[in-house]
Amino acid sequence: MSTILEKIAAIEAEMARTQKNKATALHLGILKARLAKLRRELITPKGGGGATGEGKLVFQLLDLPGIIEGAKDGKGRGRQVIAVARTCSLVFIVLDVLKPLQHKKLLEHELEGFGLRLNKQPPNIHFRKKDKGGINLNTTCPQSELDIETVKTILSEYKIHNADITLRYDATSDDLIDVIEGNRIYVPCIYLLNKIDQISIEELDVIYKIPHCVPISAHHKWNFDDLLEKMWEYLKLIRIYTKPKGQLPDYNAPVVLHADKTSVEDFCNKLHRSIVKEFKYALVWGSSVKHQPQKVGIEHILADEDVVQIVKKV
C-alpha cells in the first residue's frame, strides 16, 4: 500500500509544479488519469468488495470520527472513515462558523480524493466502449478544455482505443475521468455551521444565503427544525399520514415515500401489497389536492404531509 501512496504523492507533486494552460493540458490530463487509477486501488483494493441489497427504509445516523488532512491517503484511519461516508444517503459536515471556508475546502478535498462528489450531478457525458472504429468524439457545445487529442490521451491511459463519447456541456478532464472510472459516489451534503451564538444577527443573515448550509448552535439546540426540514428535502423523502375511517389522522407514524415514487399506488404498496387489488378510491387532504378532502384515483401524485384515507371495494 505504501508504494501506491508514494506514487500518488509523486503525481500530486508534479501536478502542483505544472502550470495550468493549453500547452500543459495534455500532460495534466495524463497525470489526472494516472492519479484516478491509483486512487481506485485505494477505494477498492484487490480481493475486496461485496454487493449490497436493497431493503426496507431504515434510518441510521452515523457519527464518524473527524477527518484530518491526508485522510484520503489513509492518515488517521481516514480511508475507513471515508469508506463509510460513501455508503450514506446524506452527509452532514459540521464546521465552525468562525472559520468555515478553511475547514470546508480541506474536507471537500479529502472526500473528492476518495471518489465522493458532494452536491453534484453525474457528468452529462455519454461514454460507450466498442470493439472497433477508434475514438469518436461528439460535442453539443464549444469545449474549453477537452479536444480529440486530450480525450484520446486520457483514454489511452485506460487502454481504451475504441469508444463513442458525447460531451453535452463544457466538460473537464476530471469529468471525463469520473465517467470512465464509473465508481464515483454522488451524495447530497449539508454543511452545519455551528456556534452561531457567537456571531451577530447581520453575520447570520449572510450565512443563511450560503448554498447547502444550515446555521445551528449545538450547545443551545438552535435551528434544529430548519436542519430537519433541510434533511428531508435533501433525502428527497415525503411523509404521508394515514387516516382510518371515522378516526383522526395518525401523525406519529407517517408512511415515508421517496420523491420519485409518490403515487397513491406507491403509498398502498408501502402499507401492504394486497391493498391495490381491493382499492376503490382514496380521500386526500393536503397540498396535492384543491378540495379538502378530494376523491382521487390510484395514479394521483401525493405531496409531503398529505393525509390519505383508503376506501376499499365492497
UniProtKB/TrEMBL annotation:
<protein>
    <submittedName>
        <fullName>GTP-binding protein 128up</fullName>
    </submittedName>
</protein>
<feature type="domain" description="TGS">
    <location>
        <begin position="236"/>
        <end position="312"/>
    </location>
</feature>
<dbReference type="Pfam" id="PF16897">
    <property type="entry name" value="MMR_HSR1_Xtn"/>
</dbReference>
<feature type="domain" description="OBG-type G">
    <location>
        <begin position="1"/>
        <end position="236"/>
    </location>
</feature>
<dbReference type="InterPro" id="IPR027417">
    <property type="entry name" value="P-loop_NTPase"/>
</dbReference>
<dbReference type="Pfam" id="PF01926">
    <property type="entry name" value="MMR_HSR1"/>
</dbReference>
<dbReference type="InterPro" id="IPR012676">
    <property type="entry name" value="TGS-like"/>
</dbReference>
<dbReference type="InterPro" id="IPR006074">
    <property type="entry name" value="GTP1-OBG_CS"/>
</dbReference>
<dbReference type="InterPro" id="IPR031662">
    <property type="entry name" value="GTP-binding_2"/>
</dbReference>
<dbReference type="InterPro" id="IPR045001">
    <property type="entry name" value="DRG"/>
</dbReference>
<dbReference type="InterPro" id="IPR031167">
    <property type="entry name" value="G_OBG"/>
</dbReference>
<keyword id="KW-0547">Nucleotide-binding</keyword>
<keyword id="KW-0342">GTP-binding</keyword>
<dbReference type="InterPro" id="IPR004095">
    <property type="entry name" value="TGS"/>
</dbReference>
<dbReference type="InterPro" id="IPR005225">
    <property type="entry name" value="Small_GTP-bd"/>
</dbReference>
<dbReference type="GO" id="GO:0005525">
    <property type="term" value="F:GTP binding"/>
</dbReference>
<dbReference type="Pfam" id="PF02824">
    <property type="entry name" value="TGS"/>
</dbReference>
<dbReference type="InterPro" id="IPR006073">
    <property type="entry name" value="GTP-bd"/>
</dbReference>
<dbReference type="InterPro" id="IPR012675">
    <property type="entry name" value="Beta-grasp_dom_sf"/>
</dbReference>
<dbReference type="GO" id="GO:0003924">
    <property type="term" value="F:GTPase activity"/>
</dbReference>
